[in-house]
Amino acid sequence: MLKLYFHRAPNPMKVAFYLAETSLPYELIAVDILKGEQHSPELLRVNPNAKVPAIDDNGTLVFDSSAILLYLAEKTGKLGGSPEQRGELLSWMMFIGTGMGPYSGQAVHFKHMAPEKLDYAINRYHREVQRHYQVLDAHLENRNFIVGDSLSIVDISAWGWANAAVMPLGEHGLQQYPNVTRWFDTMNTFSGAQAARELAQNFQFKSEMDEEARRAMFPQNYSE
What we know:
This protein is of the alpha+beta class. Helix content is 54%, strand content 8%. It has helices spanning 10-21, 41-46, 65-76, 86-113, 119-139, 153-162, 166-169, 178-187, 191-201, 211-217; strands at 2-6, 26-30, 54-57, 60-63.
């Protein structure tokens, strides 16, 4: 059976959404990243980069949420779009995987986790997150889905970050992006979104960003 290494962060939530929406059976393995469980030998065997999500699909090891979604869509034939949409789908997957996601993560880091408040870094990443959402908002005008006329892995990938948009964008979250808000409301009607949220609530992951957590999350910042 497929094993999903999971935390309730945006990227693992995407994979949980996909698995629930497509009714694929899987075994869930919770990984408390603030306790450093991502550095365990078991997780490193699946993902040498020590991050979640990662999957072990009966010996096929896949890590990175974009790679996992693409792999599962190709394997199952579900939610991968049509052949005619392939180029557009890949473009938006990379837009999320190399733009919206990393800039959101850096915005959260410098706003909420960095030991010093660096105004330049906070402004830089906050503005880039805003710009990515503006691009997506413009694209979604008169559209119900990011690619084509039905749910695809691109929507699921973007949902993972939109679901946590308050952290990088501030208390108003998606409110300033009406088309993204409308799309997000539609996404939340899918059973996969509901199941992913319920799954996340089933675990008591560590939440305190103390010294143990900082060393687990950012080991490269410490010289031993």
